């Protein structure tokens, strides 16, 4: 059944895209840059949107520190349509105070981008996607940086943090 979705005029299913994303994220050699990339399962963000970032979904990232990655990809399949939320340099969020003009500034920033073939006419609710990704990032931040004492509005990826807005190229 999965192979049948590869035929012309057929919609790709989750299993085929999940395989393709895993293949893209697999290092080809010891110095391959894909080790700086983490691509979540196609089922992951849909699960977060439906049930929140619960303990079952947290197990999917238990062996991955996403803040050591340069790119974290969250594919999403909702309503017979695919799009992707990409987070660039999530670990740099903690370096927001010393950026512009700082001698060690490389030009790299933390950003969240929604890529959708339908552009501004997307059927995906961008605010819900951004909120779900921020929830994952904040809970993972708590796990690695022990900030459980922060309220939800003080965490680095919260919606009030002006430097981490969802960008939607058209």
Summarize the structure.
This protein is an alpha/beta fold. The chain contains four helices and five strands.
Per-chain topology:
Blueprint: H1 14-24, E1 37-39, H2 44-51, H3 55-58, E2 71-78, E3 81-88, E4 111-115, H4 126-145, E5 166-167
Parallel strand pairs: 1-2, 4-5
Antiparallel strand pairs: 2-3, 3-4
Describe it for me?
The relative contact order is 0.13. The chain has 170 residues and is an alpha/beta fold. The chain has helices spanning 14-24, 44-51, 55-58, 126-145; strands at 37-39, 71-78, 81-88, 111-115, 166-167. Strands 1-2-3-4-5 form a five-stranded mixed β-sheet.
**Gyration radius, to the nearest Å?**
17 Å
Low-confidence stretches: none
Content of β-strand: 15-25%
Per DSSP, the total helix count is 4
Numbering strands along the chain, what is their spatial order in the largest sheet?
1-2-3-4-5
Largest sheet: 5 strands, mixed
Structural class category: alpha/beta
The ordered H/E elements are HEHHEEEHE
User: Which overall shape is indicated by the principal axes computed on the Cα atoms?
Assistant: globular
- How many strand units? 5
Ends distance: 34 Å
| Mean pLDDT across residues | 79
**Helix percent band:** 25-40%
Keywords:
170 residues, alpha/beta, five-stranded mixed beta sheet, 5 strands, single chain
